[in-house]
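May I ask for an example protein's residues together with how it folds?

___
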Amino acid sequence: MDKAETTSSPLLGNSSVTKEKNPTFFADWKALIKVGIVNSNLITTFAGFWLAVYFTNTAFTANWDIFLLTMAGSALVIAGGCIMNNWYDADIDPVMSRTKTRPSVTGSIPRGRILMMGVATSAAGHVLLLFTTVEAAVIAFLGWFTYVVLYTMWSKRRYTLNTAVGSFSGAVPPLIGWAAVDPGLHTTAFILFLIMFIWQTPHFLALAMKKTKEYKAAGVPMLPAVHGFEMTKRQIAVYIACLFPLPFFMGELGTLFMVIATLLNIGWLAIGISGFFTRNDLKWANMIFVYSLNYLTILFLLMVVVTFEFPFS
């Protein structure tokens, strides 16, 4: 453990970070907004926008202004929610290895300033979305409120169902993208929401298995920390199985999409079932986690690929 880690404390401010380890503001900002979460959510926002253009029979090139507002607004709302999460969790983040170097923990950015940054970023995002449609802004607010208030402040430290609560906020980005083009939404938009809602539970439960000791130390009642790995593995398998019928409600995307989506589901479920026979639960959890990342990327990019020519016509 290096010096910067041994002397860090959320109460010490900038003095807790050694000179050679002092992060730049840009690095701090990336940590606060959880840039990986923002990027992955923007992929699904883009897919929702793209498919809305496809289903409304309009040209993507005629909606560049709406597209830019949608992506920028969504990014700011998501980033604002993540900043608020970091601000609120500053007392438990020092316990976990993946969160203990955040500026909210090290004090490289004062907590009061982090709060203001979170509020300002969130507000700016909602304002930008209002220039698309009111519905897109309202959906974004529901996602933000769920993540910041219902998940971070209410359920995360109280209930094992915190994952389900947080999954709602993670499932709204494709709805934001869709509503920016088509406020009336479409059945496919809600299927995108369901895919994202269901996908998140095996993804985050696998991560929770890998970090069980840290969640216990932080007092966060994640399912594997409270009910053990066997219960968690059953939940993961059930949720993956629930993804199976969803591609068939997206028949308008074509046979190729349904076949590849089904194969992705079969592969993930096969790994899920193998968890009941493994002797190395943590290695299996890592396989589930890595597969989930590839699953999401491939599935949503596939939605764009199979409809690629249409939006530009």
The chain has two domains: 24-185, 187-308. Residues 1-21 have pLDDT under 50 and may be disordered. Residues 187-308 form a domain with the Four Helix Bundle (Hemerythrin (Met), subunit A) fold (CATH 1.20.120).
